[in-house]
Amino acid sequence: MRLSLRNLGKRYPNGHRAVAGLTLELSRGIVGLLGPNGAGKTTTLGMLATTAQPTEGEILVDGRPLRSVLRDYQRRLGYLPQHFELPALLEVHEVLEFMGGLCGLSCQEARNRTDQLLETVGLARVRHRRVKHLSVGMTRRLGIAQSLVGDPDVLFVDEPTTGLDPEERNRFCSLLARLGREKTVVFSTHIVSDVEAVVSRVVVLDGGVLAYDGAPSGFVSRATGHVYRVLIAPEELEALSRRHHLASVREEDGRLCARIVIAGTPPPEAVPAEPTFEDAYLYHFRVLSGAEPRGLWTAA
After folding, report:
1. What is the pTM of this model?
2. Which positions ≥6 away from 271 have C-beta within 8 Å?
3. Model pLDDT for residues 45-65, shown as the tens digit of each residue
4. Residue 25: which residues within 8 A CB-CB, separation 6 or more?
5. Are 32 and 161 in contact (CB under 8 A)?
6. For a designed S-S bond to 39, which of 18, 205, 262, 297 qualifies (C-beta 3.0 to 4.6 A apart)?
């Protein structure tokens, strides 16, 4: 399935313009939709998943206007919003078998599909556990499984790793990467490391406007020449953090090695460093925007 977004926009009744002039081409593979809270990620996914209607532009499905193929398109998509609820008293396998029935599968087909999906998302060993007893990570994986019951061609996932511990986040990102080999997968996040780990293409939104679309390496290159390492005494850290944006700080032989991202002239003692994806994110959303330094920065 090929999706084309043409000057897509969304303005709410209160006048707030959440997305403006968004033009993208989406096909098989995994795409990370990145940006801070309020960047327009959820609104964009909602328009793609048909839960929100654009007020400007259009979406084409294999070259045809979405409105002309709406029902077929909705049958071919899966969507997992950031906030969702599952029947708390049902067992894990019952949730998927019930969804299979809603998708038109026979009882046996629904059971077979359930077995397959529980293996895919790593929940086979808890198939008889009630939903209310699942961990947050397991609940998210069951949500993904539910969205895959109909074997969709395209999958949209909104902020799937928020609130998960590092191990569960890695497991979830690996699952999305596997799905991206066969489907169009678009997932949104403000957790930079999630995107860098699994995608070959990143779409960055800033204030509802497309800021970057391409390989992660291209986004990283924007911060070249703006990232430095500085060795300081521990008591100098506070003063440094008031002057520059801190990407990271670690101890090194009794001193502190601070990684700073700047737009202007570096301190005399600073040494140039190769930028990372997180450095580039900090450079775009904090340094270029003119935001005041505020201590150690975190993308999460």
Report:
1. 0.88
2. 228, 229, 230
3. 999 999 999 999 999 999 999
4. 2, 3, 4, 5
5. no
6. 205
